[in-house]
């Protein structure tokens, strides 16, 4: 055979054999018209390629130098490494201009001849012809590229053996290989760049219009099964606009069937990744072709109908990555960084990641795993936990899986070590394990696949064991995919955009922002806020009932203590039940798997802690209020006993007088009866003992509690306390912060002229003092208005409030003197008010006063009894007017605040109060609508006070111009009237002939003792004649109750002064809404925007958008100009900051977490994200400068073109309020 082959003169190509086939009558597939047309179209392009490098420069110019420059600028926009000492916002504006210039240069190129032909061919309506064309193109291009690449590759491999000696040569060869590669993806890449350049032009531009159909073509190619380049490995960039519009168009074409699962493969060059995917899925990723393009390609596989239900998806999206290098080769052209970015992206996009390792224990395995481990670690922190499958290729022994148990354990150990090393690098928990960041099972996540060939190709036979093992792997993979929830094409696109943006920043974990994650977090916050309100509302209603029961109890003091213990036990059960219910709701929410809840798994513990904290806070509050209510009842018991004693004496005296008058059998006039009554009254009252409530020294109680609180301090503080002769003399004037209130050494250093950015610590302390004194004044005023007696828990609560606030200014280094002076100031004011409160209460409950009030009723009853009038109607009206009416009003007032909050949280504007982020959006939108500088100044100067006023005004707006408030009250009147009528009806049913009005009313009051507090002290029920008809009384009472409801409803329907009404309520809706919306109250350490994190116990503070630091009064020390830099930009740059927290030392912004570990300042989602605050500072620059006693900021020119509409659009997008 060898002789015949050597001597044979007649040789021909396989293609040339088609002519011979025709002569022999053998049909040739390629003879069909579609194939021949496609072949001609492909030849028309490829026949003109002589020099690949020059051809790419001439025919594919947009993807060369211009595109790579654009990629560098986009990365620099994120990293700001070359900003130097230039103002950051100005530097970013310059980068924007450079980008625009490069895009203009791109759009100056017309479509090249080659791209024109390519565009025409793939636009062909015949799917078959388009498919043939792409295959001919691939084959032709492979042939052309292989001529030069084969030699370059051989030389590359040879030089790599002595890497250190040939480093520069290898770098040059690497560049030549990249330049000499030419495939279909280069033509598609050029189309993408044409489209991106066109999109930078105005919508009506003719150049732009001619390319508007390109995304539709890209989508068609994906649907036909051709790969689309996701990441351009040469430029290390994603053409975001092109990929976005192609996938959007694809979604439009297939919706609603756009559910997909994503499988990606990672591995070092030439390890058989593409062959593996082609074998598994029957796809056509290019393998061993004449090109060497690095990057990532995505390919769409339709799922057959019978599998759709099992997999719960319509497509499997396969992503093939090419060209991860080993670290030694990665030193060239920052490719190690590129590989890290690529791995992070594809791992983040995938449901299952296949790690492809050539040879059983190859040396490059560790290198690639290092990159992969970083990628998985990053994903765990942003809420994704993909499955990981390790494929060991080219394994000689078919029983390798059994023999490699030890190696698998070794691999697991290595991976755990790598995870811990990576965690330290990413500044995370160093004790993490592999299973914390990926779904991995050593037994079922490792596959050993034999080599594809038996021997050395091309003559070696194919190894059937390869296909069999790959098939088993595929079956296992399908089973794994069944457990994953699909994502839609639009969601996949959002992940692509956000992941890519984040990997462009140096610190991925703290740069990640994703609208799907943001939406999932927002939805969780909305639900949590509902659960929190349900918890609070339930406990408030329970407490209101408990307080009513306490007020209605007639028990003695010893029994009251027992009653308190039983109520506390009951409260404990209620709290436990509510806590359990809330935790179950949280668990159920996470188990539902709805709304991408898996993306916020990391927040589960935060919200669990928040529920537990809510329980503890509510328990403390309930315990204090129950104790105060019981103590109040004990005090009232003494007054009640005195009043009862006086009442019994007077009842007896009236009846004695009545008997005397009747005995004389005289016809006395009303005037004569009154005179006799007056005489009896004066004589009786003279003999009564009117010892009432003891007057207590409240000021002393407040001072003693203050002294106990400060006893841990020594020296100067004790001296100050010992000098206090009269606490009420304190707090009469405004509190002044002085130098002596600070740590001397620290203050001296911070008050002197300083370089860089500065703020005066005294100013900050004064603003804080204003806030806390306002809050304490409000607290004391609220207690005083409650018309109850002082209780020691009030002072305890007040001092705890100050302590909590003091923790917030620890960084100002205020000393013990400051704490003592401030507490004396606040307690001085409080002591005066609390003493007055106690004295007012004693006076209101003075037994003599109480008796004098009842004198007219005693006189009237005496006359009625003498004249033998029927008292049924009168007593029914008196009971309704004097007892029920006040009780009903109190009941409605107690419940009204709760109802108002409910109405705000469930009404038309409820979305504003559903999360702190939405609340922030509504404030910013209204500020923009009003567009007044004084509003923005108030917002910036005193955010807490501004929010309080804003919420109060929203409640006033909602309830002052409608019947809403009266409707709430009428609804409550109707509900309680129904209860009263029910209690009367119950009493009527059990009525006996011998029953008196007195016993009937006691029964009715007993039936209502959980609803309202009814006082019958002044009713004189003992002075009712025996023949008074009880049944008639019930009829009159029912009628009076209905009349009362009508009269009260009419009264509230006339309206009222809403602000006064709100301030008079025991439960203030404005305060409750403030607590819910203000949250933790922390503000960004640089720009002072408020934290928007949900729950009480969040570990990390964050805000949706940050603002120029000048709006928080920060200025440059030398020029005194307001600062325009935005901290969300600064923390990604090389710039430095200095303030009191850094002890005046200069530190890189990017290391801000060293000083503020609980703040996560993520970069803006886009350049436009901060347009709102740029517009505000630009518009009111002069006014802010005047208010903050600084000079106006140097506004970048680009900011001046931002319109009010763009400002509104920016916050709508940031807060996802489309």
UniProtKB/TrEMBL annotation:
<dbReference type="InterPro" id="IPR052986">
    <property type="entry name" value="VLIG_GTPase"/>
</dbReference>
<feature type="domain" description="VLIG-type G">
    <location>
        <begin position="257"/>
        <end position="500"/>
    </location>
</feature>
<dbReference type="Pfam" id="PF25496">
    <property type="entry name" value="URGCP"/>
</dbReference>
<dbReference type="Pfam" id="PF25974">
    <property type="entry name" value="URGCP_9th"/>
</dbReference>
<dbReference type="InterPro" id="IPR057365">
    <property type="entry name" value="URGCP"/>
</dbReference>
<protein>
    <submittedName>
        <fullName>Interferon-induced very large GTPase 1</fullName>
    </submittedName>
</protein>
<comment type="similarity">
    <text>Belongs to the TRAFAC class dynamin-like GTPase superfamily. Very large inducible GTPase (VLIG) family.</text>
</comment>
<dbReference type="InterPro" id="IPR030383">
    <property type="entry name" value="G_VLIG_dom"/>
</dbReference>
<dbReference type="GO" id="GO:0005525">
    <property type="term" value="F:GTP binding"/>
</dbReference>
<dbReference type="InterPro" id="IPR058641">
    <property type="entry name" value="GVIN1_dom"/>
</dbReference>
<dbReference type="InterPro" id="IPR027417">
    <property type="entry name" value="P-loop_NTPase"/>
</dbReference>
<dbReference type="Pfam" id="PF25683">
    <property type="entry name" value="URGCP_GTPase"/>
</dbReference>
């Amino acid at each position: 055979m060898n002789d015949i082959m050597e001597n044979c003169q007649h040789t021909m190509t396989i293609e040339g054999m088609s002519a011979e086939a025709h002569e022999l009558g053998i049909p040739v597939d390629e003879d069909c018209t579609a194939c021949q047309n496609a072949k001609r179209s492909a030849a028309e392009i490829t026949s003109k390629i002589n020099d690949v490098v020059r051809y790419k420069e001439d025919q594919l110019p947009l993807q060369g130098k211009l595109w790579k420059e654009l990629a560098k600028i986009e990365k620099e926009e994120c990293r700001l490494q070359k900003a130097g000492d230039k103002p950051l916002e100005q530097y970013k504006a310059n980068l924007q201009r450079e980008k625009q210039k490069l895009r203009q240069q791109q759009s100056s190129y017309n479509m090249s001849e080659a791209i024109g032909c390519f565009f025409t061919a793939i636009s062909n309506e015949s799917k078959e012809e388009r498919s043939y064309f792409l295959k001919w193109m691939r084959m032709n291009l492979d042939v052309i590229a292989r001529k030069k690449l084969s030699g370059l590759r051989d030389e590359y491999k040879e030089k790599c053996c002595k890497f250190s000696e040939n480093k520069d040569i290898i770098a040059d060869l690497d560049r030549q290989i990249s330049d000499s590669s030419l495939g279909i993806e280069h033509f598609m890449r050029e189309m993408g760049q044409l489209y991106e350049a066109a999109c930078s032009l105005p919508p009506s531009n003719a150049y732009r219009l001619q390319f508007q159909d390109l995304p539709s073509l890209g989508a068609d190619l994906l649907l036909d099964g051709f790969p689309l380049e996701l990441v351009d490995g040469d430029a290390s960039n994603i053409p975001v606009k092109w990929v976005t519009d192609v996938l959007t168009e694809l979604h439009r074409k297939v919706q609603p069937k756009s559910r997909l699962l994503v499988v990606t493969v990672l591995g070092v060059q030439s390890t058989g990744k593409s062959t593996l995917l082609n074998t598994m899925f029957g796809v056509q990723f290019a393998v061993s072709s004449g090109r060497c393009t690095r990057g990532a390609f995505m390919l769409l596989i339709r799922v057959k109908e019978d599998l759709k239900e099992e997999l719960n998806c319509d497509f499997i999206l396969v992503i093939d990555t090419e060209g991860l290098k080993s670290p030694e080769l990665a030193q060239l052209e920052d490719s190690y960084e590129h590989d890290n970015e690529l791995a992070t992206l594809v791992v983040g996009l995938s449901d299952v990641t296949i790690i492809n390792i050539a040879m059983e224990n190859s040396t490059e395995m560790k290198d690639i795993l290092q990159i992969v481990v970083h990628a998985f670690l990053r994903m765990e922190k942003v809420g994704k936990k993909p499955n990981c499958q390790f494929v060991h290729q080219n394994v000689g022994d078919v029983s390798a899986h059994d023999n490699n148990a030890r190696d698998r354990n070794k691999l697991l150990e290595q991976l755990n070590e790598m995870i811990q090393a990576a965690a330290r690098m990413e500044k995370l928990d160093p004790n993490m394990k592999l299973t914390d960041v990926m779904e991995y099972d050593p037994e079922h996540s490792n596959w050993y696949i034999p080599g594809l060939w038996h021997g050395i190709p091309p003559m070696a036979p194919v190894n059937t064991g390869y296909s069999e093992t790959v098939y088993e792997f595929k079956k296992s993979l399908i089973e794994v995919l069944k457990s994953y929830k699909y994502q839609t094409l639009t969601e996949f696109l959002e992940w692509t955009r956000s992941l890519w943006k984040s990997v462009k920043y140096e610190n991925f974990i703290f740069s990640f922002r994703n609208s799907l994650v943001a939406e999932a977090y927002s939805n969780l916050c909305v639900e949590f806020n509902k659960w929190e309100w349900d918890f609070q509302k339930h406990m408030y209603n329970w407490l209101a009932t408990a307080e009513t029961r306490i007020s209605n109890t007639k028990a003695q003091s010893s029994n009251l203590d027992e009653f308190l213990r039983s109520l506390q036990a009951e409260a404990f059960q209620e709290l436990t039940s509510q806590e359990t219910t809330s935790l179950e709701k949280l668990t159920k929410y996470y188990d539902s798997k709805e709304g991408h809840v898996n993306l916020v798994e990391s927040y589960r513990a935060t919200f669990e802690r928040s529920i537990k904290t809510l329980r503890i806070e509510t328990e403390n509050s309930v315990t204090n209020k129950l104790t105060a209510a019981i103590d109040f009842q004990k005090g009232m018991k003494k007054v009640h006993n005195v009043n009862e004693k006086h009442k019994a004496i007077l009842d007896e005296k009236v009846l004695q007088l009545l008997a005397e008058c009747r005995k004389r059998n005289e016809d006395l006039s009303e005037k004569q009866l009154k005179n006799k009554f007056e005489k009896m009254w004066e004589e009786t009252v003279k003999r009564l003992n009117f010892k009432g409530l003891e007057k207590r020294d409240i000021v002393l109680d407040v001072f003693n509690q203050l002294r106990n609180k400060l006893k841990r301090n020594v020296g100067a503080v004790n001296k100050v306390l010992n000098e206090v002769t009269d606490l009420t003399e304190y707090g009469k004037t405004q509190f002044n912060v002085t130098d002596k209130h600070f740590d001397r050494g620290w203050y001296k250093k911070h008050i002197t002229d300083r370089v860089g950015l500065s703020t005066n610590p005294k100013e900050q302390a004064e603003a804080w003092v204003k806030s806390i004194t306002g809050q304490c004044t409000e607290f004391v005023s609220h207690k005083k208005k409650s018309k109850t007696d002082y209780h020691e828990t009030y002072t305890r609560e007040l001092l705890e409030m100050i302590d909590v606030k003091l923790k917030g200014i620890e960084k100002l280094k205020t000393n013990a003197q400051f704490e003592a002076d401030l507490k004396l100031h606040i307690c001085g004011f409080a002591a005066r008010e609390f003493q007055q409160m106690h004295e007012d209460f004693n006076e209101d409950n003075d037994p003599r006063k109480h008796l004098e009030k009842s004198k007219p009723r005693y006189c009237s009853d005496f006359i009625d009894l003498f004249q033998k009038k029927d008292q049924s109607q009168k007593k029914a009206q008196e009971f309704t007017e004097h007892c029920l009416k006040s009780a009903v009003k109190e009941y409605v007032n107690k419940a009204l605040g709760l109802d108002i909050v409910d109405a705000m949280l469930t009404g038309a504007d409820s979305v504003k109060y559903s999360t702190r982020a939405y609340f922030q959006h509504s404030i910013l939108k209204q500020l923009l609508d009003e567009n007044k500088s004084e509003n923005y100044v108030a917002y910036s100067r005193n955010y807490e006070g501004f929010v309080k006023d804003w919420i109060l005004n929203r409640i006033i707006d909602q309830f002052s111009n409608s019947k809403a408030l009266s409707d709430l009250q009428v609804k409550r009147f109707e509900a309680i009237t129904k209860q009263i009528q029910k209690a009367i009806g119950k009493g009527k049913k059990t009525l006996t002939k011998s029953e008196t009005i007195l016993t009937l009313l006691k029964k009715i009051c007993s039936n209502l003792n959980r609803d309202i507090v009814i006082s019958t002290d002044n009713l004189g029920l003992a002075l009712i004649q025996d023949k008074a008809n009880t049944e008639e009384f019930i009829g009159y009472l029912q009628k009076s109750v209905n009349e009362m409801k009508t009269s009260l409803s009419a009264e509230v329907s006339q309206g009222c002064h809403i602000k006064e009404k709100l301030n008079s309520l025991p439960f203030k809706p404005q305060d409750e809404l403030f607590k819910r919306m203000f949250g933790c109250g922390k503000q960004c350490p640089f720009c002072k925007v408020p934290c928007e994190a949900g729950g009480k116990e969040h570990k990390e503070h964050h805000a949706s958008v940050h603002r120029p630091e000048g709006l928080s009064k920060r200025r440059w020390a030398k020029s005194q100009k307001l600062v325009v830099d935005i901290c969300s930009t600064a923390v990604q740059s090389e710039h430095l900051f200095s303030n009191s927290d850094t002890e005046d030392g200069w530190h890189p912004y990017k290391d801000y977490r060293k000083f503020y570990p609980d703040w996560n300042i993520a970069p803006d989602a886009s350049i436009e994200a901060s347009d709102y605050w740029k517009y505000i500072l630009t518009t009111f620059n002069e006014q802010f400068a005047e208010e903050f006693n600084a000079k106006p900021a140097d506004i970048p020119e680009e900011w001046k073109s931002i319109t009010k509409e763009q400002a509104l659009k920016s916050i709508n997008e940031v807060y996802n309020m489309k």
